[in-house]
Amino acid sequence: MAIFLGSTAFFFLYRQSLDTMTFLGSLSRLVFSYLLTWAISTANYIINEIADVPYDIQHPTKRFRPLVKGEIRKIPFSLLGLTLIISSLVISYLFFSRPFFFSLLALLAAGFIYNIRPIRTKDIPFLDSISESANNPIRFLIGWYAFSPPQIFPPPSLLVCWWSFGNFLMVAKRLSEFRLLKEKAGDYRASHKKYSKKFLLLGMAVSALIFFMAYFYFAFAFKLQYFIAFSPFLLFYFFLISRKTLKEKEVMEEPEKLLSYPSFALYTFLLVLIFILSFFLDKIGE
Predict the structure, then answer these.
(1) How far apart are CA 252 and CA 237, in angstroms?
(2) Predicted confidence band at 251 (pLDDT cuts at 50, 70, 90)?
């Protein structure tokens, strides 16, 4: 999703670039950027699975994962991740711009920082969600530089928007874990030992505030009147996520599961349509 948004944002701000692109050429670059990002993300997932075995044993559902149960051996699993890393970085270096390559490398580094000691930000309160959410702007940059010339950097406000939305979801996820696992929460995630419900709610509120500050800064800076007009729909989206998080303990443990709720999926689709409409209605700086 973040990759698509990065590419869309580039063409929204630099619409003249569409004149130099062919449909097949654009589609192939987008598909390859997705595949390369998938390879790095999968490698990060493998790192996460291996590093989290001692903690997943404490989780009511994750303790049944094949790696935790010893059904998958770590060495072949690690070699698969290494193969994905090398192949994706080599391909990106040969066929994409340097900023694209370094964005992909940053995504890999973020996985190491989040999962592996001695840093392992996953165990540090709030820094765990902040560092995990860094994947969002990094993926945004991957989508942006799939098409953008190396010298053009996206507006920082857009990167802050996408990071803060991700942080909002990740803090909500931790609140769900905190409520679901209760006294065992600290055994599953070390950062939970220093969390409280109030701190997590405050984290969600601050993340939402940062998002809307960056969102309105971007909209006013580029004079996007429809982005401003449609902001109440976005605010209601944050409200729905918060409401789900506080009503149901399990739902936010995997944020993507929200889309399994028909009403939420329908509203998400409506929100996408609204911003597609603003893409065609808004004119930069006018």
Answers:
(1) 14
(2) low
